[in-house]
Amino acid sequence: MIFCADNDNCMIIGRSDVDRINVGAIMRHLGGGGHPAAGSAMIRRKCANPLAMRKRILDLLMHEQQETVQVSDIMSFPVKTISPDLSMREAQMFMKEHHIKGIPVTEGENMAGILTTGDFKKVRKESQWENPVKAFMNREVRIIEPGASPVEAAKLMVAHNIGHLPVVENEKIIGIVTRSDTLMYFYDLLPE
After folding, report:
1. Model-level pTM?
2. Which H helix or E strand runs over 169?
3. Closest CA to 61 of 115, 17, 20
4. Which long-range contacts (CB under 8 A, 24 or more apart) does 16-19 make?
5. 3 forms bridges with which residues in the sheet?
6. pLDDT in tens, 47-94
């Protein structure tokens, strides 16, 4: 809440029961203080415009959120995988059945590649549908760690024009983050 007095001073009081938001840290940026669940700040200057203060608080909240949310918070798990020896027809049916647009291809616990719906465009002849996934999959798989931020994931996807990042910890796939996951994360940050 922002309260402004006639003398152009504004008092900002914040409370939150959301663990990812540290109200005290946000208020310290504004010259005040507090603890993770509550805080306040007094803005003592004639330029204490309530609308400008609201925008500043929203910017600080977005920054705070971006620093605390990790890929592990937005990834999908458990991850479905397929074998590189599966036929393209079987892979397509499996992906349709599970509403998957990109799937890691694994041999045992090792990642061999990734197959996306775009890879099905490489199938030119009817007979190629019986060829194994390994003939069409992308072998250069970009991965990300669970502790990375959604911003890092989005930058990686944009830089390499990809829509799926397997999340790997200790050389094992523990999840997958998609372009849609990152878009939903950023959408949730927009003010209502």
Report:
1. 0.65
2. strand 164-169
3. 20
4. none
5. 11
6. 557 777 788 888 877 766 555 788 999 999 999 999 999 999 999 999
